[in-house]
């Protein structure tokens, strides 16, 4: 199968495909990140990047986002320290 084709089954709904271009250049460093959910009983979200997928059950979404924001804050702080 070609790396440019992502196949999904009927029970998977794609809600976003995000590209992440580099600032000022518009150059992309990888494939889009796909986000979606399973069309079944649970409130489970999935995130896929270049064929690697992880699932986030409902109860883990807020803690996951909290840790992403923490990592972002720490990265900004490190960048400020390194650039001063």
From the structure above, extract its key features.
84 residues; alpha+beta; four-stranded antiparallel sheet; 4 strands; 30% helix; 30% strand; flat
Beta-strand percent range: 25-35%
Specify the structural class: alpha+beta
Oligomer: single chain
Which parts are unreliable, with pLDDT below 50 for 5 consecutive residues or more?
A: none
Counting DSSP H or I runs of 4 or more residues, the number of helices is 1
Sequence of secondary-structure elements: EEEEH
Distance N terminus to C terminus? 48 Å
Helix content: 25-40%
Report the strand count: 4
C-alpha Rg (nearest Å): 16 Å
| Overall tally of domains | 1
Let me know the largest β-sheet: 4 strands, antiparallel
- The shape, in one word, is flat
**Average pLDDT, to the nearest integer?**
86
Strand arrangement, major sheet = 1-2-3-4
Describe this structure in words.
With 84 residues, this protein is an alpha+beta fold. The chain has one domain (12-82). The chain has one helix at residues 58-82, and strands spanning 12-18, 33-38, 44-49, 52-57. A four-stranded antiparallel beta sheet has the order 1-2-3-4, with helices on one face. It is flat. The mean pLDDT is 86.
What's the short version?
By secondary structure, the chain is α+β, with helices and mostly antiparallel strands. The chain has one helix at residues 58-82, and strands at residues 12-18, 33-38, 44-49, 52-57.
Topology of this protein?
Layout (H helix, E strand, L loop, with lengths): L11 E7 L14 E6 L5 E6 L2 E6 H25 L2
Antiparallel strand pairs: 1-2, 2-3, 3-4
């Amino acid at each position: 199968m070609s790396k440019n084709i992502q196949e999904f089954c009927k029970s998977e709904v794609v809600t976003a495909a995000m590209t992440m271009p580099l600032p000022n250049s518009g150059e992309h460093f990888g494939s889009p990140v796909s986000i979606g959910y399973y069309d079944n009983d649970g409130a489970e979200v999935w995130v896929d990047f270049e064929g690697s997928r992880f699932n986030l059950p409902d109860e883990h979404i807020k803690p996951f986002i909290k840790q992403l924001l923490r990592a972002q804050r720490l990265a900004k702080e490190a960048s400020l320290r390194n650039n001063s």
